[in-house]
Amino acid sequence: MKHTMTQDTEPLLRVRDLRIAFRTDKHLTFEALKGISFDVPDNSTVALVGESGSGKSVSSLAVMGLLPPDTTIVDPGASIRFAGRELLGLPLRERRALCGKDIAMIFQEPMSSLNPVFTVGYQIGEVLRLHMGMDKRAARARTLELLHEVGIPEPEHKIDAYPGQMSGGQQQRVMIAMAIACEPRLLIADEPTTALDVTIQKQIMDLIARLQRARRMAVLFITHDLGLVGEIADRVIVMRHGQVREEGAAAQVFGAPADAYTRALLHCRPSLDARPLRLPVIDDYLSGRFAPSHVHEQRARGTTPGDEPVLVVSNLAKSFWLREGLFGKREFKAVRDVSFTLGRGKTLGVVGESGSGKTTVGLTLLRLHRATGGSALFEGRDLVAMSDREYHAYKRRIQIIFQNPYASLNPRFTVGQILLEPMRIHGIGANDMERGALARQLLGRVGLPDAAYGRYPHEFSGGQRQRIAIARCLTMKPEILVCDESVSALDVSVQAQVLNLLQDLQDEYGMSYIFISHDLSVVKYISDQVMVMHQGSVVEMADSDELYRNPQHPYTRSLLAAIPGGARHGGA
Q1: Full DSSP string of 316-373
Q2: How far apart are CA 565 and CA 572, in angstroms?
Q3: Which residues, including other chains, have CB under 8 Å from residue 301's CB and lie 6 or more apart?
Q4: Which residue intervals of 5-101 are DSSP H helices?
């Protein structure tokens, strides 16, 4: 996808001195962009990289004309030019026509962007009818071509499917088909692969690259993961706090980053080549605390025959019954004969694509799903077979951190109430004063200030919310912690902080982790043993280093082969 770019008199997209502020209160404003400038030449791929809050998505929304009404363009000299035409100040009708046809955008979350009550064929056809003037028959024929072009299986059937009947990868392909329907000159892709499995992520990245080559369109690719863009971008723009920190050819930015912040982003992500004692975080680099020796202190991982088993799972199975027709139903086997032993103080990594059954295993062990077969022995007692009354005593000993920190915390409770509630239920502490003291102590343990106790979840970032979720689990002093994609949606720097925290807690309390993730670099870093699942079954299990060094099963090899090149080496 790399190209030798020819410099025309003016690039396809030219952004100059863009300063954008949002009104947060009657008298307060927040400046999201602080005078940024960048170019996207024709027939090229430019990556806009940065953490949450860096301003990269605001930049794309400004280009599309999708900023909220309370937005202020601070600098009157700001300019957004597309194909020589100034977009700022353009009449709304002309802006909509231009952005629907010549500039298109793929959003991060397809289920939020696709209308669940219309078929995917109708939604793609609507774009063609609106912007290309096609009738229904022509639009349907073109929609079938587009679905085939983006790799949707059986497009003649899927055209009449609803978004909820498709997988996440297929939904994202539908979004891409909708975006390229009018053959735009510029495609903006805003975090299009963040929540996708590594194999689906590779498919989407390869698809965008193929479409870019075939249609000779420009691509503005927005992501927080530098490791992802090393193989696809011609140029990279690194943003932080609404400013451009570094810009240059991708080879230059990856090979010899000039800015400390860029170097930090490259090294915060775990690599497949090494397992440092602690992952560096952004502040380590910017404050000068990071030393190269930190990377060379290696953490040993693995299992031994002498490990004390804390959980022994044998032939665990879980089926769901799906409606078929008016009165029929069929069995869907989500988990099939899964067996493993979890050692005390050890971490079992569970990897596989969406639908492989890895999350179902975790939820079944916590009895959030009822097992349909097998056993799970904890201190000789079968968690699967015991009654609800018997299991109540074990709830505090097996806890879970969910993937989405925005949905797993009650927005009506303060952080203090969130932490006190489980302690009250399980009779931990003599009174609320004692429980409050423990809650404040745990907040400090996960790196949050004492002032967080009286605040609400919406006042915290995603990484901070995940720390609150971890603190809530720690109130129970669990022996087993199930981490279900608990760092997958976090920026690489916040991800490093949470992984370091999990390591510290395991070292201090001797907890055992079942770490479920589709991010194979993270799994290798934190796991002693890795279990690979495919279509509900375990296809391979081995110590972490051995599995990554010498994978035996073709499915495992395909997962490892799909890891982006930049991510293999921590982006460096």
Answers
A1: EEEEEEEEETTTEEEEEEEEEEEEEEEETT-EEEEE--TTSSHHHHHHHHTTSS--SE
A2: 10
A3: 275, 527, 528, 543, 544, 545
A4: 56-64, 92-101
Q: DSSP string of 465-488? A: HHHHHHHHHHTT--SEEEEESTTT
Rg (CA), the chain: 25
Whole-angstrom Cα distance, residue 97 to residue 525? Answer: 48
Closest CA to 22 of 49, 64, 53, 63: 53
Contact between 210 and 531 (Cβ < 8 Å): no
- Strand pairing partners for 222? 48, 190
- DSSP 8-state class, residue 284: H
Inter-residue contact 456 to 17 (CB < 8 Å): no
Nearest partner of 62 among 42, 100, 33, judged by Cα? 33
Contacts of 556 (CB under 8 A, 6+ apart): 532, 539, 540, 547
Structure tokens at 191: 């975090």
pLDDT tens digits along 184-217: 999 999 888 766 777 778 888 888 888 888 888 9
- In whole angstroms, give the CA distance from residue 545 to residue 555: 17
pLDDT of 168 strictly over 90: no
Token pair, residue 55, equals 């301003």
DSSP code per residue over 392-405: HHHHTTEEEE-S-T
DSSP state of 292: T
Q: What is the DSSP letter of 453?
A: G
Higher pLDDT, residue 519 or 14: 14
| Sheet containing 480-484, strands listed edge to edge, beginning at the edge strand earlier in sequence | 398-401, 480-484, 512-516, 347-351, 529-534, 537-543
Tokens of 428: 């931990």
Question: 513 pairs with which residues across the strands?
Answer: 347, 481
- Distance of alpha carbon 207 from alpha carbon 174, whole angstroms: 12
Max Cα separation, the chain?
75
Closest CA to 330 of 338, 319, 340, 341: 319
Query: Both tokens of residue 370?
Result: 């009822």
Residue 321 CA to its chain's centroid (Å): 29
Q: Which residue has the tokens 């082969």?
A: 561
* Mean pLDDT within 140-150: 93
* Better-scored residue on pLDDT, 541 or 356: 541
What confidence score (pLDDT) does residue 481 get?
Answer: 94
DSSP string, 538-570: EEEEEEHHHHHHS--SHHHHHHHHTS-HHHHTT
Amino acid at 181: A
Using a 10 angstrom Cβ sphere, with 0-12 exposed, 13-18 middle and 19 or more buried, the burial of residue 249 is middle
Among residues 54, 41, 63, the alpha carbon closest in space to that of 188 is found at: 63
Tokens of 297: 């202190």
Distance from C-alpha of 297 to C-alpha of 284, rounded to nearest angstrom: 16
Say if CB 34 and CB 74 are below 8 A apart: no
